[in-house]
Amino acid sequence: MIVMSFDFGTKKIGVAIGECVTYSSRVLKTINKKNYIQNIKKIILDWKPKKIIVGLPLNIYGKKQKITIKAEKFSHNLFKKFKIPVILHDERFTTIEAKNLLFKTGGIKKLTKNKINSLSAKIILQSWLYEKFKKKMT
Q1: pTM
Q2: pLDDT value at position 138?
Q3: Do the bridges between strand 51-56 and strand 2-7 make them parallel or antiparallel, or are there none, so unpaired?
């Protein structure tokens, strides 16, 4: 089953795609928040995901913040528009992890917003796949 993930931001949205049988994922792209529905529609038509995972930006204590409400609204709009099940998944520390990975592989030059957002989407998806896999193992 193909699964798509989004790292929602106020200016950019990272996108990744994954597969539930192999529990693998890869970065797709980062899209601008302006006209994002048109860009997402094209990606969904190309990949035909069965589920969408959206990063839920909670604060360090697991509480909602301003961006959390916007991400929830984004999730609701995706479901309303595309009729694909949307799952919110805790994304705490994914941006930090993405920055660390990018820095390790290419130094400061790799730390661009587009790469950070799209890698964060992949990390969100990998985390969701891992949790799904872990549950199947028990």
Answers
A1: 0.85
A2: 46
A3: parallel
Give CA–CA dist 138/135, Å, rounded: 6
| Sign of CA pseudo-dihedral 90, 15, 22, 106 | negative
Say which CATH number the domain at 49 has: 3.30.420.140
- What's the total number of domains in the chain? 1
Containing domain of residue 9, as a range? 2-137
For 28, other C-beta atoms within 10 Å of its C-beta total: 19
Query: Which residues are 24's β-sheet partners?
Result: 19
pLDDT in tens, 76-120: 999 999 999 999 998 876 766 666 676 667 666 555 556 778 888
For the packed helices 36-47 and 66-82, what is the interaxial angle rounded to 10 degrees? 50
For the four alpha carbons of 96, 119, 117 and 73, in that order, the dihedral sign comes to negative
